[in-house]
Design goal:
Helix content: 25-40%
Bound molecules: flavin-adenine dinucleotide
Strand content: 15-25%
Oligomer: single chain
Number of strands: 17
Length: 348
């Protein structure tokens, strides 16, 4: 009897896999241990062969890769066509994608082309009455729902950090299998013109520690902005001083800087830092919220962080209900003291 094929899509850029991709092998192994079957990995794009070779250490029986001209740069149509063809050839029963921007897009498009369904943003898997049941948050994380998918292949996107990356065994090696593109370059309507590096250091979604700032970062009347600024410019200037403090703490802790939507909408910081329902959903080990009230839409993006610390002037701020540790006070006084203490302790 042919065993069930559980496919894992490795999201990568120029030969470097996104860390969330390796976590998928943890989820796939958990599934295989519950229902049987074998894990097969897929990787596409420039330098994907390198990633394909690296993937063997996480235990897949086969790894397929493709990097024809039409697959060199990420574009959803040729990538989906490649994945769908392979899923059909292998009679895949399950396909895992990471909950990254590309993973989400490919999961949805593959489901349409395969006539299947997606279980998105899954945090846990179990078997109930012979069916695979996935757990996922709904209503901005206020409720947890259990879902299953009748169609095959069932498509799952996993929450970043919800599944543990397995211990790799560098001794496990294999030969990746090349699969050519399904769509030719001439068939494609879009071209990638180039890439520019986004500002910022550690990626928000991969960071172990995230320090975020909200509207409160602009609230320091003791700061005198340079002459000639109008009211809005002065507010932004103040916020930038506040975000410097947020960024310093993030940097000493080796983490990334996040923000509330209020801070983004007010022009204090770019959208790429936004955490929440309409921003990034993250699950760091430590989340420090500075001058953030704790609106439900913000909590939707960070409520599953392992340890939450809140710094807020208002003892009634809703964020304190969720926080493990709360500091009632002015972030302008508390952040420099915290940064200094961590710098000494961590000798940075
Ligand atoms: C459809 C929809 C989607 C949304 N998506 C998101 C989302 O993705 N992410 C998100 O964050 N929001 C989102 N929002 C907005 C959300 O409802 C809140 O408006 C927003 O989160 C508030 O941001 P904030 O906590 O920074 O600001 P505020 O609610 O204004 O809170 C500022 C806090 O700072 C404190 N403070 C002020 N000065 C200081 C100081 N000096 N020191 C310490 N504390 C201080 C105050 O006590 C207050 O608690 C969404 C809203 C809608 C309707």
């Amino acid at each position: 009897m042919m065993s069930d094929k559980v496919l894992v899509y490795i999201d990568q850029f120029k030969g470097i896999a996104l860390p969330a991709s390796w976590e998928l092998f943890g989820a796939a192994q958990a599934l295989v241990s519950l229902t049987g079957g074998e894990v097969v990995a897929l990787v596409v794009g420039a330098e994907s062969k390198k990633v394909a070779e690296e993937a063997f250490q996480y235990g897949p029986v086969e790894v397929y890769y493709g990097d024809d001209l039409s697959l060199t740069d990420y574009r959803p149509e040729p990538y989906t066509a490649w994945i769908v063809k392979l899923a059909k050839e292998l009679s895949a029963t399950t396909i895992f994608f990471p909950t990254t921007t590309r993973g989400r897009e490919l999961a949805a498009m593959s489901a349409i082309d395969l006539g299947s369904g997606v279980m998105p943003d899954v945090g846990a898997l179990e078997v109930e009455g012979g069916k695979l049941v996935a757990t996922r948050p709904v209503y901005a994380g206020k409720l947890i729902s259990k879902v299953f998918c009748e169609a095959r292949p069932q498509i799952i996107t996993t929450r970043i950090r919800a599944f543990k990356k397995p211990e790799g065994d560098p001794g496990k090696k294999g030969t990746p299998i090349y699969k050519e593109a399904v769509m030719a370059e001439a068939e494609l309507q879009t071209k990638v013109l180039g890439y520019t590096q986004a500002e910022g250091g550690v990626s928000l979604t991969d960071a172990n520690v995230v320090v975020s700032g909200g509207r409160g970062v602009s609230n320091n009347s003791a700061l005198t902005p340079p002459a000639g600024l109008d009211e809005k410019q002065a507010e932004i200037w103040r916020a930038q001083q506040g975000f410097k403090l947020v960024g310093e703490l993030a940097s000493v802790l080796g983490g990334a800087m996040g923000a509330s939507r209020a801070a983004v909408d007010a022009g204090y910081i770019p959208y790429s830092h936004q955490v929440g329902q309409t921003g990034k959903v993250i699950m760091p080990n430590l989340y420090i919220a500075c001058g953030i009230s704790g609106a439900i839409q913000h909590l939707a993006g960070m409520r599953t962080s392992k340890v939450i610390v809140a710094i807020n002037k208002d003892p009634e701020a809703p964020i304190f209900k969720l926080a493990r540790f709360g500091v009632v006070g002015d972030l302008y006084a508390i952040l420099p003291a915290l940064t200094e203490t961590f710098r000494k302790r961590l000798s940075k």
